[in-house]
Structure formats: structure tokens, C-alpha cells
Amino acid sequence: MATAKKAPAKTAAPAKKAAPAKKAAPAAKKAATKAPRKVNAAFLKPMTPSATLAAVIGATPLPRTEVTRKIWEYIKKHKLQDPKAKRNINADAKLKELFGKPTVDMFELTKIVNAHLT
């Protein structure tokens, strides 16, 4: 008769250690009443656009924030945002004159526009 090999005996899993005691939650800090955040006046100052920028947004002086908003309205109205690479703006005739190149990254837009504001 052939003797069968015995499988090694399974060892018991080590006993779990007790979870460390939780620390008490820190005392809630008193909610200090803060003064409202001050808005940078430079963003709200109306700026006069150059002739090339005025062709896109109009000639009336506007704050920088409104200039950016109007440019994005123009871009979306004329569907100039690249459908595959949403970061890129494909320039039409007016924007090509403003940008100086056929395609601009959206992060370059502010730098380019600031050069056309006085």
C-alpha cells in the first residue's frame, strides 16, 4: 500500500490587536466674524479697448472682467472653441487680427487681451 502524504497543518491566524483608543476631537474653534473680502479695484476700473479689440467687444470702456466675459460670449456665439481640444480657440478674421496667430490657448487669452487695454 502506498502512503499518502499529509498536507501541512494550517496555522492559526494571528490574533488581531485591539484598535488604539481614539483621541478626543479638538474643541471647536469659535467662529470669528471676518470682514468681507475686499475686491481689487484694478479689476473694476473701466479700461479703453484698442481698435482691434473694439471690433470684437465694442468701443465702450469696460472693466477687465467684463472684457473677458464679452470675448467668451463672442467665441461661444461663433463656435470658435476647438471641439476636440477645448483649451484652444480657433480665430476667425477679427480674432486673428487680435491674437496675431490662428490658434490661441485659453490661458494665453488674458495676456493677449491685456495688451489691448489702456
UniProtKB/TrEMBL annotation:
<dbReference type="Pfam" id="PF02201">
    <property type="entry name" value="SWIB"/>
</dbReference>
<dbReference type="InterPro" id="IPR003121">
    <property type="entry name" value="SWIB_MDM2_domain"/>
</dbReference>
<feature type="compositionally biased region" description="Low complexity">
    <location>
        <begin position="1"/>
        <end position="30"/>
    </location>
</feature>
<protein>
    <submittedName>
        <fullName>DNA topoisomerase I/SWI domain fusion protein</fullName>
    </submittedName>
</protein>
<dbReference type="InterPro" id="IPR019835">
    <property type="entry name" value="SWIB_domain"/>
</dbReference>
<keyword id="KW-0413">Isomerase</keyword>
<feature type="region of interest" description="Disordered">
    <location>
        <begin position="1"/>
        <end position="36"/>
    </location>
</feature>
<dbReference type="InterPro" id="IPR036885">
    <property type="entry name" value="SWIB_MDM2_dom_sf"/>
</dbReference>
<dbReference type="GO" id="GO:0016853">
    <property type="term" value="F:isomerase activity"/>
</dbReference>
<feature type="domain" description="DM2">
    <location>
        <begin position="42"/>
        <end position="118"/>
    </location>
</feature>
